[in-house]
Each structure stands twice: as C-alpha cells, then as structure tokens.
C-alpha cells in the first residue's frame, strides 16, 4: 500500500506578505509605490520580504509600513502587530536607587577627576577674570602716571604780552617807560618757538602829546570820538578789531594791502605811509570801507 500524503504545512503570515498582497490587489507596481512614499525601492522590497535587518531600525520599519498602509488605504494595526516593537529606552544605573538622576544611554557621566573638572570653561573662565582683576589691583599707584610721562607732550607757547592802555585819569606814560615795555614784549616774543605775526600797537591818550608824536607805523589811527575800527592785512590777519576810545592813537605794522572798516568816519583820522587818508570819499552813512596798498 502506498503511504498517505503528508498534509500541507500552513504558511506563516507576515507583515511583508500582507503588504505585498495589498499592493498587488491595488494593481500598484512597487516602483510606483516607492515614488509615492518617497523612499528607495530597495527599502520597500526589504519590507515586503521581511528583511527588516536591512532597514535602519525597527522604528523606521514600523513607520514605513504605516505610511504604505495609508497610501493603500488599509488598516495598519494587523500589520504593525506582526512587526517587532522598537526597544524601550534603558535606564542606566537603575540599581542605585530611586533618588538617582535619570541619565539616558550614550550620555557620559560628569568627570570625577580634578584635571577634567578644571578643563571645563565654566571653571577656568571666571578664574581668568579674577586673575585679571587681581593683577590690576597689584599695579603700583604711580605706574600709570610714570607711563604717561613718557608720552611726548606738545609744547604750549605762552601768548604774547598785551600792554593795556592807561586809563584817562592816570598820568601819561613817559617815553622811557614806553620803550622799556616795548623791549620786554620784544624779548618775550623772541623766546617763543613760533613768533607771532608782525604787529605793533601803540595806544596813548590824547593828553600825552609827546607820546602821541612818538607813535609810528605803516598805518596810524587817531580818533576824536569813539569809533569801531577793523584792519586786516594781506593774510587776512586782524591787526586791529575793536572800539578805539576818543583821543586814542594806534600805530599798526603789517603786510599790505590793508582792508580797513571804520565805523565812525567823522571821529576818525587815518595816516598811511605818512600821508593822510580821505575817508569821506569811501564813506556811506558815516561808515567807510577801503583798501590801502
């Protein structure tokens, strides 16, 4: 007698088989499905062949299977139930007690040796700041003053001496006294490294007739009434720019031509190069503007 045939072995249903059957039932090629879910075709082939070890991990395999089910519009729960679960995160040093801090895998413990602790920026950063502050406190008080003395300072020139005009109620200065004052002013101007512009100003009251006759200059100004006068030389330097008091005589020397403005023509007399100047020809409303060459 012939032996009876062995019953067929039941084929195990896997998640890849279910996915392949669902795709075939929809008449969708695996390449078209790969383009739809935007993954390489080889990963779909590995998923349908149950070669899950060729995929990155179990979580990726489950996510890809769920996305394929969404595209094919089938229930994903039966398929996900047949797939391995991703491993749960393991707690490190769980045996130490409940009061220990949670530390996931892959994170290193804080350094316990002194050298590693000192290499952290949170330690040596404040230490450098403290050392810098301590260095500033230890600098001698006179150090910065001594360093500033090494820097060359600009030479400050003393301004030329100004000889004030004597008041009207004082006696007129004698000719020797005026000469002594002029000699002192000349000596001080020669001692400066940058001599001032050539300008000689003499001012005497009307009562000093002898002193007034001694006033000389390229331009001589005499006033019988209060008059504002401005005289500029060829380099636009002001030789005179003020109110000249009544009876005052001023002698000016400089480089001509002189540009002159007189605020009171009726009370002012000008003598240029020894010749009187006619202010009336240049006067407008008792104010004269002229140029003397």
Strand order, main sheet: write it out.
3-2-5-9-8
What is the average per-residue confidence, as pLDDT, rounded to a whole number?
A: 74
Structural class: alpha+beta
Radius of gyration (Å):
55 Å
SS element count, helices: 10
Low-confidence stretches: 6-10, 191-212
Shape: elongated
Query: What's the β-strand tally?
Result: 9
Percent in strands: 5-15%
Amount of helix: 25-40%
* Main beta sheet strand tally, sense and closure: 5 strands, antiparallel
How far the N terminus sits from the C terminus, by CA atoms, comes to: 157 Å
The H/E string reads HHHHHHHHHHEEEEEEEEE
Strands, helices and their partners?
Blueprint: H1 15-25, H2 30-37, H3 41-48, H4 58-72, H5 77-81, H6 114-118, H7 121-138, H8 143-149, H9 175-191, H10 209-213, E1 219-223, E2 227-232, E3 238-244, E4 249-252, E5 258-262, E6 268-272, E7 275-276, E8 283-284, E9 287-292
Antiparallel strand pairs: 1-4, 1-6, 2-3, 2-5, 5-9, 6-7, 8-9
Description:
With 293 residues, the protein is α+β, with helices and mostly antiparallel strands. It has 10 helices and 9 strands. The protein has helices at residues 15-25, 30-37, 41-48, 58-72, 77-81, 114-118, 121-138, 143-149, 175-191, 209-213, and strands at 219-223, 227-232, 238-244, 249-252, 258-262, 268-272, 275-276, 283-284, 287-292. The strands form 2 sheets. It has a 5-stranded antiparallel beta sheet with strand order 3-2-5-9-8, with no helix packed on it. A hairpin with a 5-residue loop joins strand 2 (227-232) and strand 3. The model is unreliable at 6-10 and 191-212 (pLDDT under 50).
């Amino acid at each position: 007698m012939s032996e009876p045939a062995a019953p067929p072995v039941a084929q195990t249903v896997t998640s890849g088989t279910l996915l392949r059957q669902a795709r075939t039932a929809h008449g969708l090629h695996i390449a078209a499905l790969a383009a739809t879910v935007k993954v390489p075709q080889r990963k779909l082939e590995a998923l349908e062949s149950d070669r899950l070890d060729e995929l990155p991990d179990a979580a990726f395999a489950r996510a890809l299977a769920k996305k394929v089910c969404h595209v094919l519009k089938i229930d994903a729960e039966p398929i996900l139930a047949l797939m391995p679960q991703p491993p749960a995160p393991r707690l490190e040093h769980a045996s130490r007690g409940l009061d220990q801090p949670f530390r996931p895998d892959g994170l290193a413990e804080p350094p316990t040796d002194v050298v590693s602790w000192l290499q952290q920026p949170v330690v040596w950063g404040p230490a450098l700041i403290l050392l810098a502050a301590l260095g500033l406190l230890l600098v001698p008080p006179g150090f910065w003053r001594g360093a500033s003395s090494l820097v060359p300072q600009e030479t400050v020139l003393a301004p030329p001496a100004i000889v004030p005009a004597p008041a009207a109620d004082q006696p007129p200065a004698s000719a020797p006294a005026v000469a002594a004052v002029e000699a002192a002013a000349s000596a001080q101007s020669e001692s400066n490294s940058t001599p001032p512009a050539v300008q000689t100003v003499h001012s005497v009251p009307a009562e000093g007739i002898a002193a007034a006759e001694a006033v000389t200059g390229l331009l001589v100004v005499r006033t019988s009434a209060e008059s504002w006068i401005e005289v500029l030389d060829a380099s636009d330097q002001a030789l005179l720019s003020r109110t000249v008091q009544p009876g005052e005589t001023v002698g000016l020397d400089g480089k001509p031509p002189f540009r002159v403005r007189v605020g009171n023509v009726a009370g002012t007399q000008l003598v240029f190069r020894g010749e009187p100047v006619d202010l009336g020809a240049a006067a407008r409303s008792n104010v004269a503007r002229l140029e003397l060459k």
